[in-house]
Amino acid sequence: MTLIPRDWLPSCSMKRVICHWTAGGYKATSIDRAHYHILIEDDGNLVRGTHHIADNVSTADGVYAAHTAKCNTGSIGVAVCCMGGAQAAPFQPGSYPMTQKQWETMAKVVAELCQFYRIPVTPQTVLGHGEVETYLGIPQHGKWDPMVLPWAPEMSKTQVGNHLRALVQRAMMGEEPAEQPSPATLFIGGKTFPLVMLNESAYVAIRSLADALGWSIHSATAGQVNLSADGKRLTLASTLVGGKGHVACRDLAGALELPIEWDAQTRRITIG
Ligand SMILES: [Zn+2]
Known about the structure:
This protein has helices at residues 30-35, 100-117, 132-136, 157-172, 206-213, 249-256, and strands at 16-21, 38-40, 46-48, 75-80, 126-128, 185-188, 191-194, 196-198, 201-205, 216-220, 224-229, 232-237, 239-241, 244-248, 260-263, 268-271. The chain is an alpha/beta fold and 272 residues long.
């Protein structure tokens, strides 16, 4: 299913698509329409900008959608209408947080643009405004749109950019984004283990972990496991899941005195 009406797509040569948020409300205003080629409202409704995409083939005549400082030539500007009053650090989404519908629609819109204008999906050719400085070396004076997802604010700018490009690629292949997130894993001692999520905490089966990493379990009762790991004697609270004793990753990292990190994009916890 195509989202962009065919007559919004003039035949011309474009180099890249730059994604933005308007830093306004959920509906496209006339000012928004002057600055972007395609706008996406909160419910996913598309609004055409005042300038045609072909206006940005050349910016020498001064008639073009001005969306990215010193980078409007050959650049299609797409924006989600949202994030008015948002603050970067500490992150505050304001009264119009970007909706998942907007984010997913933007990926589909960008996919259609890439297909039509034969633009490859790379960090230099499909990117957020907040990535222009990084990938194209053109200063953007602290612009950070649309590099924070209000429903997953822990994702880094790099992760959000890669996530956007992955969604675009998936949309180009005609696949709907997966409904279910991939299962979470634990990476420790150079090996990967499946995780069980309970009450928003991640648990790992202690017996398979100990076997794989050469740790010895001295005793395991209903609520507690006693083991030696890398020369340390540990006592951890354990919980039965599917008949197997599981320990919380956070407890494990604490007992081992090792750093613990959660990567939201890959859904992986790393200890050590
Ligand atoms: Zn922007």
